[in-house]
Amino acid sequence: MLERARRSQYLQALGIDEWTRRVQPAVDIVETVSGEDEWTVLQNSVAACQRCALHECRTQTVFGVGDRRAEWMVVGEAPGAEEDARGEPFVGAAGQLLNAMLAAIGLARESVFIANVLKCRPPGNRDPSPAEIAECLPYLHQQIRQVKPRLILAFGRVAAQSLLGTDQPLGALRGSVHAAAPLNTPVVVTYHPAYLLRTPAEKRKAWEDLKYARRIHAELR
Ligand code: URA
Questions:
Q1: Which of 16, 136, 168, 202 could form a disulfide with 11 if both were Cys (CB 3.0 to 4.6 A apart)?
Q2: How far is the CA of 21 from the centre of ligand 1 (A)?
Q3: Structural domain of residue 48, as residue ranges?
Q4: Which class for 153: exposed (0-12), middle (13-18), buried (19 or more C-beta within 10 A)?
């Protein structure tokens, strides 16, 4: 201590500004930069991905969109034709309904993070194969790791089963909270908006699921 005081006196006497360590800002900057790097690395790996044959027929990958610090993550199945063309999830008719479903529980599309299990469009909008899901799921896990949502809303059977590693039917998964890898994030399951467009009578059940999710989210605070 005495040494340091003496050193200060010497430096002052010499008219030299003393160097001081600014611990907090330096740490903040390093964390921000490395956080952004990780996200960019992930985006680039998805964009260049050739882990399955879907890369041969895609226009582009569909990484996901929204708030990278969102409390809510929305997970769908896979891009359709419009998403493949625009590079953004849920921009077609199902996307319009998704936006309305989110708005019904007070969530703006921009305030959540929206991703799919698959980042490439299966041709003809067929169901993703188990092998395609297995190749692509690590990207979704990385997104969950980085966004760290408080709650995940899984839309449809493929999203629910892939996130939860189960083959239980959607109906059996509704109405309770599950935990998803890799962070044990709470998951609430509901119907896919494309299914609701074909089966509007089920919208009432989806509304119950959304209210349930909102309640769970409030309890997690
Ligand atoms: N259906 C999905 O599951 N995801 C999309 O992005 C669009 C339609």
A1: 16
A2: 50
A3: 2-12+34-220
A4: buried
